[in-house]
Amino acid sequence: MSEQELIALFPLRSVLFPGGRLPLQVFEQRYLDLISQSLRSDTGFGICLLSQGGETASPGTTQQVHRTGTYAKIVDWDQLPNGLLGVTVEGHKKFRVQECWPRENRLLMASVEWAPTDYLGETPIALGEEHEHLAELLKDLMAHPLVEGLGMESDLTDKRQLAWRLAELLPVPASDKQRLLELDDTDERIREIETLLAAVMRYGGS
Protein backbone atom coordinates (compact mmCIF):
# COMPACT_ATOMS: atom_id res chain seq x y z
CA MET A 1 0.00 0.00 0.00
CA SER A 2 2.91 2.35 -0.62
CA GLU A 3 2.15 3.34 -4.23
CA GLN A 4 1.08 6.89 -5.01
CA GLU A 5 -2.27 7.82 -6.51
CA LEU A 6 -3.98 10.99 -7.70
CA ILE A 7 -7.23 11.76 -5.84
CA ALA A 8 -9.56 14.71 -5.30
CA LEU A 9 -9.83 16.22 -1.82
CA PHE A 10 -12.85 17.39 0.15
CA PRO A 11 -11.40 19.68 2.85
CA LEU A 12 -13.45 19.94 6.04
CA ARG A 13 -13.22 21.08 9.62
CA SER A 14 -13.79 17.46 10.62
CA VAL A 15 -11.53 14.41 10.89
CA LEU A 16 -12.61 11.03 9.52
CA PHE A 17 -11.14 7.64 10.43
CA PRO A 18 -11.46 4.29 8.61
CA GLY A 19 -14.87 2.79 9.24
CA GLY A 20 -16.28 6.12 10.37
CA ARG A 21 -19.19 7.85 8.67
CA LEU A 22 -19.72 11.53 8.04
CA PRO A 23 -22.81 13.34 6.67
CA LEU A 24 -22.10 16.13 4.17
CA GLN A 25 -24.24 18.88 2.66
CA VAL A 26 -23.11 19.58 -0.90
CA PHE A 27 -23.93 22.75 -2.80
CA GLU A 28 -20.75 24.07 -4.45
CA GLN A 29 -20.50 23.08 -8.10
CA ARG A 30 -16.98 21.67 -7.70
CA TYR A 31 -18.25 19.21 -5.12
CA LEU A 32 -21.50 18.44 -6.93
CA ASP A 33 -19.37 17.42 -9.92
CA LEU A 34 -17.10 15.38 -7.63
CA ILE A 35 -20.04 13.55 -6.04
CA SER A 36 -21.56 12.85 -9.45
CA GLN A 37 -18.30 11.44 -10.77
CA SER A 38 -17.78 9.36 -7.63
CA LEU A 39 -21.25 7.83 -7.90
CA ARG A 40 -20.83 7.05 -11.60
CA SER A 41 -17.42 5.43 -11.21
CA ASP A 42 -17.85 3.95 -7.71
CA THR A 43 -14.72 5.78 -6.57
CA GLY A 44 -14.03 8.03 -3.61
CA PHE A 45 -12.12 11.09 -2.52
CA GLY A 46 -9.95 12.26 0.33
CA ILE A 47 -11.28 13.88 3.51
CA CYS A 48 -8.66 16.21 5.00
CA LEU A 49 -8.79 18.61 7.92
CA LEU A 50 -8.39 22.24 6.87
CA SER A 51 -5.31 24.01 8.20
CA GLN A 52 -6.16 27.29 6.44
CA GLY A 53 -9.23 28.67 4.70
CA GLY A 54 -12.91 27.84 4.96
CA GLU A 55 -14.97 24.90 3.77
CA THR A 56 -16.55 27.01 1.03
CA ALA A 57 -14.72 28.97 -1.64
CA SER A 58 -14.28 32.70 -0.98
CA PRO A 59 -12.62 35.26 -3.28
CA GLY A 60 -9.02 35.95 -2.36
CA THR A 61 -8.69 32.96 -0.04
CA THR A 62 -7.00 29.59 -0.45
CA GLN A 63 -7.56 26.23 1.18
CA GLN A 64 -4.69 24.40 2.82
CA VAL A 65 -5.01 20.99 4.42
CA HIS A 66 -3.21 18.79 6.90
CA ARG A 67 -1.12 16.18 5.12
CA THR A 68 -2.74 13.09 6.64
CA GLY A 69 -6.31 12.27 5.64
CA THR A 70 -8.72 9.42 4.97
CA TYR A 71 -10.00 8.13 1.64
CA ALA A 72 -13.80 7.94 1.74
CA LYS A 73 -16.56 6.50 -0.43
CA ILE A 74 -20.23 7.44 -0.63
CA VAL A 75 -22.57 4.99 1.14
CA ASP A 76 -25.82 7.00 0.96
CA TRP A 77 -27.22 10.12 -0.67
CA ASP A 78 -30.50 12.02 -0.79
CA GLN A 79 -31.98 15.48 -1.27
CA LEU A 80 -32.28 17.25 2.08
CA PRO A 81 -35.36 19.23 3.21
CA ASN A 82 -33.42 22.45 2.52
CA GLY A 83 -32.99 21.38 -1.12
CA LEU A 84 -29.28 20.63 -0.84
CA LEU A 85 -27.71 17.32 -1.75
CA GLY A 86 -26.90 15.25 1.31
CA VAL A 87 -24.37 12.43 1.17
CA THR A 88 -22.94 10.11 3.79
CA VAL A 89 -19.36 8.96 3.30
CA GLU A 90 -17.45 6.16 4.98
CA GLY A 91 -13.71 6.18 5.62
CA HIS A 92 -11.68 3.38 4.05
CA LYS A 93 -7.93 3.96 4.34
CA LYS A 94 -5.45 6.55 5.53
CA PHE A 95 -3.15 8.45 3.21
CA ARG A 96 -0.46 11.11 3.30
CA VAL A 97 -0.45 13.99 0.83
CA GLN A 98 2.75 14.31 -1.18
CA GLU A 99 1.67 17.24 -3.39
CA CYS A 100 -1.51 19.31 -3.51
CA TRP A 101 -2.84 21.86 -6.01
CA PRO A 102 -6.18 23.42 -7.09
CA ARG A 103 -7.82 22.83 -10.46
CA GLU A 104 -9.36 25.72 -12.40
CA ASN A 105 -12.69 25.02 -10.66
CA ARG A 106 -10.84 25.25 -7.29
CA LEU A 107 -11.24 21.55 -6.57
CA LEU A 108 -8.16 20.44 -4.67
CA MET A 109 -6.24 17.54 -6.16
CA ALA A 110 -3.49 15.62 -4.42
CA SER A 111 -0.87 13.02 -5.10
CA VAL A 112 -1.11 10.72 -2.08
CA GLU A 113 0.72 7.74 -0.64
CA TRP A 114 -1.34 5.13 1.16
CA ALA A 115 -0.37 4.59 4.79
CA PRO A 116 0.88 1.12 5.77
CA THR A 117 -1.70 0.95 8.56
CA ASP A 118 -5.20 2.28 9.35
CA TYR A 119 -7.25 0.73 6.56
CA LEU A 120 -10.40 -1.38 6.55
CA GLY A 121 -9.68 -5.09 6.52
CA GLU A 122 -6.61 -5.02 8.74
CA THR A 123 -6.06 -7.98 11.06
CA PRO A 124 -7.91 -7.26 14.33
CA ILE A 125 -5.99 -6.53 17.52
CA ALA A 126 -7.52 -8.29 20.52
CA LEU A 127 -8.82 -5.96 23.21
CA GLY A 128 -7.45 -6.68 26.67
CA GLU A 129 -9.36 -6.46 29.95
CA GLU A 130 -7.52 -3.26 30.82
CA HIS A 131 -9.38 -1.48 28.01
CA GLU A 132 -12.87 -2.89 28.54
CA HIS A 133 -13.91 0.41 30.14
CA LEU A 134 -13.18 2.11 26.80
CA ALA A 135 -15.43 -0.36 25.01
CA GLU A 136 -18.24 0.46 27.46
CA LEU A 137 -17.70 4.17 26.85
CA LEU A 138 -17.85 3.65 23.09
CA LYS A 139 -21.13 1.74 23.46
CA ASP A 140 -22.60 4.77 25.20
CA LEU A 141 -21.26 7.20 22.58
CA MET A 142 -22.56 5.13 19.67
CA ALA A 143 -26.02 4.92 21.28
CA HIS A 144 -26.48 8.68 20.78
CA PRO A 145 -29.27 9.17 18.19
CA LEU A 146 -27.10 11.28 15.86
CA VAL A 147 -24.37 8.65 15.85
CA GLU A 148 -26.75 5.70 15.74
CA GLY A 149 -28.44 7.22 12.68
CA LEU A 150 -25.22 6.95 10.68
CA GLY A 151 -25.44 3.15 10.72
CA MET A 152 -21.80 2.58 11.61
CA GLU A 153 -20.62 -0.89 12.55
CA SER A 154 -17.73 -1.37 14.94
CA ASP A 155 -16.12 -4.47 16.41
CA LEU A 156 -15.71 -3.60 20.07
CA THR A 157 -13.33 -6.53 20.54
CA ASP A 158 -10.85 -5.02 18.05
CA LYS A 159 -8.55 -2.49 19.70
CA ARG A 160 -7.84 -0.79 16.37
CA GLN A 161 -11.53 -0.15 15.60
CA LEU A 162 -12.12 0.92 19.20
CA ALA A 163 -9.39 3.54 18.85
CA TRP A 164 -10.76 4.79 15.51
CA ARG A 165 -14.28 5.29 16.84
CA LEU A 166 -13.26 6.88 20.14
CA ALA A 167 -10.91 9.25 18.33
CA GLU A 168 -13.83 10.42 16.19
CA LEU A 169 -16.50 10.62 18.87
CA LEU A 170 -14.73 12.07 21.91
CA PRO A 171 -15.63 15.75 22.51
CA VAL A 172 -12.15 17.11 21.82
CA PRO A 173 -10.89 19.71 19.31
CA ALA A 174 -10.33 18.69 15.69
CA SER A 175 -6.62 19.36 16.16
CA ASP A 176 -6.49 16.56 18.75
CA LYS A 177 -8.39 14.21 16.44
CA GLN A 178 -5.96 15.03 13.64
CA ARG A 179 -3.02 14.23 15.88
CA LEU A 180 -4.60 10.87 16.68
CA LEU A 181 -5.14 10.16 12.97
CA GLU A 182 -1.48 10.85 12.23
CA LEU A 183 -0.35 8.15 14.67
CA ASP A 184 0.39 4.77 13.09
CA ASP A 185 0.59 2.72 16.29
CA THR A 186 -2.73 1.63 17.82
CA ASP A 187 -1.34 1.28 21.34
CA GLU A 188 0.04 4.81 21.18
CA ARG A 189 -3.32 6.06 19.91
CA ILE A 190 -5.10 4.35 22.81
CA ARG A 191 -2.70 5.93 25.31
CA GLU A 192 -3.31 9.37 23.82
CA ILE A 193 -7.07 8.79 23.91
CA GLU A 194 -6.92 7.92 27.60
CA THR A 195 -4.93 11.10 28.26
CA LEU A 196 -7.52 13.16 26.38
CA LEU A 197 -10.36 11.37 28.12
CA ALA A 198 -8.84 12.14 31.53
CA ALA A 199 -8.69 15.83 30.58
CA VAL A 200 -12.31 15.78 29.40
CA MET A 201 -13.43 14.19 32.65
CA ARG A 202 -11.41 16.63 34.73
CA TYR A 203 -12.04 19.89 32.90
CA GLY A 204 -15.10 19.13 30.77
CA GLY A 205 -13.16 19.36 27.49
CA SER A 206 -11.96 22.49 25.72
From TrEMBL:
Residues 6-201 form the Lon N-terminal domain. It comes from Pseudohongiella spirulinae. It comes from the Bacteria. This is Peptidase S16.
